[in-house]
C-alpha cells in the first residue's frame, strides 16, 4: 500500500510541475496551441486538475511512519500553504485569461519550406471588439514543435534563401 501512495504522490507532483511549466511557457514564450480545442482542454484540466492534484499530494502521509504531534502540525501547515498556493495559481491563471482580450491570429501563409512543414505566415495582433485601430501585422516563421504546440519567430522575408522556400500562391 505504501508503494501505491508513493506512486500517487510522485505522479501528482510531476503533473503539477508539468502544468506550471506549460502555463509559464504559454505566457512568456511565443508558443501557442495549434488550435483552440487544445487551449480549451488545457484550461479546463488546469482549473480542475490543480486542486485534485494538490489533494493527491496528501498521499505522502500514507508512506510516512507514524507522525508525532509536532510533525502533524507541520504537515497541516504545509497542506494549508500548498492549498493557498494552488488557489493563488488558479486565480492568477484565470485573471490572466480573463484580462487578455488581445491576441495574435495567424493569417495567410506566404512561403512554405520545400522539405519540411515550416511556413512563413502573416500574423495579426488585435483586441477584437474593444479595439478600433487596425491590427498590427508581423511576418513570422511557424514551426510545429509537436502536434499540440506551435512556435512563432519573427523573420525577414528579404533574407530568405529562395532555394529553400516556395511562395504560396493565394487565389483571389
What can you tell me about this protein's structure?
By secondary structure, this protein is of the alpha+beta class. 46% of the residues lie in helices and 23% in strands. It contains 3 helices and 6 strands; from the N terminus they run H-E-H-H-E-E-E-E-E. It has helices at residues 2-28, 36-56, 69-99; strands at residues 31-33, 103-113, 119-126, 136-144, 149-154, 165-167. It has a 6-stranded antiparallel beta sheet. Strand 2 (103-113) and strand 3 form a beta hairpin. Helix 2 (36-56) packs antiparallel against helix 3 (69-99). The longest helix has 31 residues, at 69-99. The N and C termini lie far apart (66 Å). The mean pLDDT is 81.
Supply the key terms.
alpha+beta; 3 helices; elongated
Task: Classify the secondary structure makeup into a structural class.
Answer: alpha+beta
H/I helix tally? 3
Compressed to H and E, one letter per element, the order equals: HEHHEEEEE
The percent range for helix content is 40-55%
Work out the radius of gyration.
23 Å
Beta strands, count = 6
Low-confidence stretches: none
Rounded to the nearest angstrom, the distance between the terminal CA atoms is 66 Å
Shape: elongated
Largest sheet: 6 strands, antiparallel
Please sum up the structure shown:
This protein has helices at residues 2-28, 36-56, 69-99, and strands at 31-33, 103-113, 119-126, 136-144, 149-154, 165-167.
